[in-house]
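Students often ask what a holo structure prediction actually looks like on paper. The answer is less mysterious than it sounds. You provide the chain, you provide the ligand, and the output is a string of discrete structure tokens encoding the 3D arrangement of the protein together with adenosine monophosphate.
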Amino acid sequence: MKFPFENAYARLPEACFVRLAPTPVKTPKLIRFNTKLATELNIDLNGATEADIAAIFSGNQIPDQADPLAMAYCGHQFGQLNPQLGDGRAILLGDVRNQRGELRDIQLKGSGRTPFSRGGDGRSPLGPAIREYILCEAMHALGVPTTRALAVVATGEEVVREQMEPGAVFTRVAASHIRVGTFQFFALRQDYEALTALADHVLERHYPEIDRSAEDRYLQLFRAICMRQAHLIAKWLQLGFIHGVMNTDNMTVSGETIDYGPCAFMDAFSASKVFSSIDQQGRYAYQNQSAIGQWNLARLAEAMLTLFPAENEDDAVAQATAVLKEFSEVHGQAWQSAMNRKLGFSEVQEGDLQRIAAIMEWMEQGGLDYTQFFRRLCHVTQPQQDRSAVLGLLTLPECRNSAAMERNLHEWLDEWQQQLAQRESDAEASVIRMEASNPAIIPRNHRVAEAIKAAEEGDYSVFENLLAALADPYTEYPEFAAYQQPPQPEQKVLRTFCGT
Ligand code: AMP
Ligand code: MG
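The corresponding structure tokens follow.
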């Protein structure tokens, strides 16, 4: 097997990482390999057997030209600064050049202890590995910037959590693993040489459109990072996704979603929804994600202040503040146009916000399934179309149905259909727009839980079937119809866990 390693990160100052190899595992067995992604990454399998692949993606064999290392970073966890985090259970094998000429990190997760492990064992149970595989590949298929899944290998070892669990190594692919917390790490230590080298690396790697000789290049970089996050978080909201642990060490500077721990998609809509068992205050609730995104970016601004082209600190703070304000505006616009597309509109007009707010409120009051509601709207854009599939959502076991609710929905549908007819001359284009932003299938928590449970018992078919169902989420396939269904009351997942 041959990898086109470049290892650009390994050439940064030594303070950025610790070089070390993964810790070998007992009996690696390949559970899943993403061959298509491997091809995109220019990995030459060259007749490699499953055992060869398992040996590499368990960390038992280091590929030629790899330069394995654990990255240093810190971060605010639930608002509290933790000055020392870093890859405690992950090893970056190196970065490779993909078919589009972009650098991509290949990282093993669950690959043993590192100097950053603190109290942890450096390992990962199988469950979280399966979970991350499903979630990140689903996000990719849904069109959300995200890290990707390349492989899951069972280790043949057990890890101790609340009980003994089978161990696994998950291979993650990312535009890079550089986080807001990576910048914080060097700012906190006043290591301006490493901070500048890191910023230059990020400029070249993720924002080549910024002129690297411009005096304000780092301010431009900060702004560009903020804009990517503004769009990213709008996409999460549009899909009913709750990241669950938006600590600054779990926010990339590339604009990809990272760290699929306790994340979850909502079934019934609730603006204050929280799944994560460790998020007791609801800091990372669905509706808080925009504000938290901005809070995290303010921490990035603090870390980058010395790089801004300002006379003094006050000037630098003013520059950062202007960008953070722009983040809110751009994010708000991105969110609104995304929600408008879900309703079939090609542009935003006055009064649209109220229409969106009203339907979100009905959804919340009625306990309507977020994904199914919008998907079914695609089939009732015209007054003569049968509305029973939409109204039928009110009769699901979990819904709070009432005559008033039905009346409200009818009124809302009437007004919306009139607007569509007035504003969108091409009705078909409108439906196509809706279908392209209202998925039929999302990785529902009960389906993910079911796949994990079966995998833990040695049956990977449930996992495979779910991946197949999630591969083309904006199209309705009869064979995957069951995956569109929300959970029955007894199937509901109330809490999600980091599982680390
Ligand atoms: P996370 O909650 O995944 O964002 O991880 C937060 C920090 O805890 C990171 O520094 C991880 O590397 C570290 N960590 C999480 N799980 C483990 C583990 N099992 N062993 C060592 N470090 C861990
Ligand atoms: Mg993390």
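The longest strand covers residues 148-160.
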